[in-house]
Amino acid sequence: MVLASASVGLGLAMAARIGGGRLADRRVLHEALSIAVMIAIVVHAGSLLFDHYVNFGLADVTVPFASGYQTLWTTLGIVSGWGIVLFGLAYYARDHIGRERWKLVHRLTLVTWIGGLVHSLGEGTDAGQPWFVALMALVVAPSLILLAVRVTSAGRAPAPAASPPGSGRLVPGGRPPAIPVPRPSRPAPVVSAARPWPSRPAPVNERSAAERPAAASRPGGQPPALVRGAGAR
After folding, report:
1. How far apart are CA 185 and CA 188, in angstroms?
2. Which helix (H) or strand (E) covers residue 122, if one does?
3. How far apart are CA 155 and CA 148, in angstroms?
4. Do 8 and 109 contact (CB within 8 A), yes or no?
5. What is the per-residue burial (b if ≥16 Cβ within 10 Å, else e) of 32-70?
6. Cα–Cα distance between 84 and 91 in angstroms, integer?
């Protein structure tokens, strides 16, 4: 449980981006701790086969509800052990099962870790010893605190990010850009059919002969001014 708690705590710290150091280095350490936990589980189950006090067989340490010794606690330990091993090995098959499915499976490791913790407290022969309680509290308490922080932070909605001004682009999680509202245009003048627009008068040289003043003709076709001049003579 010490190795399992250290591995879980490191994984939660990486997910919450807590702590220093390079992420790649911490990932390698997390993987090494996970492998060490799986080896410790196999060693723990194998050592029980040589324990003459409980007289376990292979099925008693690998099959749930097969053992008659504290069946509930033993079954909880078997299920948790299988879960830790299988979920840990799923890391190496994440490209085949898909990243999103692997993340969901990897989160179930927390459930198996809690099950292993309850199994240790319920069936462990040293569960009542002060050194055991102090050691469990030392390695388990930080992981439980990080788990609580992870759960509470996952339930909060992320704050919306503001879009860059004038970019017109939507930032993921941000507000959509403001849509400009067009200004109302002036209405076009309505021309009534009963009162048409007045037209410009045509130039004098373009007027028709009917609009010109009629010239009074006299015998000989002379204009009136010439006739008046001839009579005065």
Report:
1. 9
2. helix 109-123
3. 11
4. yes
5. ebbeebbebbeeebeebeeeeeeebeeebbeeeebbeee
6. 11
For the stretch 68-115, pLDDT in tens is 889 999 999 999 999 999 999 999 998 898 988 988 888 899 899 999
What are 124-128's contacts with CB under 8 Å, separation 24+? none
Rounded to 5 degrees, φ, ψ at 45 are -70, -40
- pTM, to two decimals: 0.62
Measure the CA–CA gap between 75 and 37, rounded to whole angstroms: 19
**CA–CA distance, 200 with 203 (Å, rounded to integer):** 9
Question: Which amino acid type is present at position 99?
Answer: R
